[in-house]
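Case study.
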Amino acid sequence: MIRKTLKNPQAIVGLVLIIAVLLAAALAPLLAPHAPNETDLTKKFAEPCADYPLGADELGRCELSRLLYGSRASMSISLPVLLIIALLGLVLGTLSACGGKRLDAVLSFVCDTFIAFPQLVIAIAIIGILGSGARSVIVAIIVAMWAWFARMVRSYAMLEMGKDYVLAARLAGCGTAKLIFLHLIPNVLPQFIVYLSTGVASSIIMVSGFAFLGLGLGPETAEWGAMLNGARGTIYSHPEMLVYPGACILLAAAGFNLFGEALRDILEGEA
Amino acid sequence: MKRYISHRILMFFLVLAGVSVLSFALIGLFGRDPAEIIARRTNINASYEQIEAVRQSMGLDKPLPARYAAWIAGLFRGDVGISIYTFKPVMEDLAQCFPVSAALVGLSLAWVIIISVPVSLICARRPDGAADHFVRVASVVGMSFPTFWLGFLLLISFAVKRPIFTVLPAPGIKGYILPSFALSVPIFSGFIRVFRASLLKEMGSEYADFARARGLGRGRILTHHALRNALPPVVTMLCQYLGYLFAGGAVVENVFSLNGLGTYLVGCVASADSTSVATCAVIVAAIFVLANLAGDFVNRLLCPWTVRS
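After joint prediction, the assembly is written out as follows.
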């Protein structure tokens, strides 16, 4: 499967974009020509030049440096979110599928409630409870998204539960915990990775959407959504400042989506 | 079938109850004092006595469960009281912002259907053709578009550079064209992928082979045989979005300065307004669950043979 992935052009493009974003996030201090919040009012809306490759914003901050640091903000939230959601989803989803009828009913009900609940309300309330900052945004997105993952894992695990190998494992005296970790999770994993990759993409968009609404991350943060919100005042005079941050969100999200969807095509071709 | 229906109806009310309890709990934990927010609105240096007076007059001195009970009673009377956020009756506020959201969601879904159905059919007509390859990549990129940024791009190109539309919303349907399109792009992109895959799956089935053996062309099999069978996953998805978009459009509403349900919700949460938040959340959740139910029933009508007990 790995070889097939490496031969798929769409997966390669996605992988290249993912690596580019991760590198930008990791090496931002080395790559950026300026500090992200270094203001120089004489350079207000400076034209692109050698020192300011993409020009400067309304406070004379280097646009390119802010974009690079923006990838850091985005990744440092989206990756932990997905890691925790992945664990939560796998454990709760498989538990729901094979932990007995009553547990399944309760977990399904909680999932249904969270899925029907407006995500934005959860996010604002949690950011309000925990205060601003990256950590509250992480918690907010986890609480808003976990139910979708748990439900997804549950539906795949349910399909697996009907198969003969599960019955064989049960007959051989396999306990529930062992069944979950040794049999169910490895079998659900391929589909789950697809979901995870597209999940990172939606998390990137969600983080910047919250920052755009001024939730969690302050307007001075070098984050793509916050930068969009800062640039909207100059939509007539400097529309290019609205274009760059969004393009970064698009590229980062597209990388994870292209990779995930290519993986899905490969998996479905095999099945 | 009867058991199924009664189970779904029971779940409907359970989920609504869960959603309302969750709203009250979240706002209760929120830590902001609604009485203080109201008092400070008229007088920034409101004294402790003034805040307490507001608290008593608004009934905010009662414990959260008592306020929840009062809200439930109000909900059945059709009058849940006054919003802390706007100081107007919640129902009046809803009557104002609900039609905005409904128009936005309705038009977005219209875009989704208008664009995704023909495009998916073209893709499935010649899979692995040039058009199919292009659409497959384009749809993944489309799924990755942040809607608020797309909104700005549309505003820059069609309101700033070429003044066909206005930056502030125009009255009537014209003001909704750009926002609904921005909202629909990631949705119809995802739609095309699901619809195309579903169509191709049907085209690979035995009845399609049989139709082919009878001498029917691929185009005719596609529109007359496969289309209907390929609909259930798409109907399910459409109904899911119908419910999701009502509160999920806040960022787009913000870009286009529309005052819809999403924007109202953001304001209400910020004012620690538990009654308005719970009312909105219950309405949104009701639409969500009902839309899913409706999708289920439509699928049962479309393809009764796919239903498992």
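Observations recorded in class. DSSP finds 13 helices and no strands in chain B. Residues 90-202+231-302 of chain B form a domain with the MetI-like fold fold (CATH 1.10.3720.10). We will return to this complex in the next lecture.
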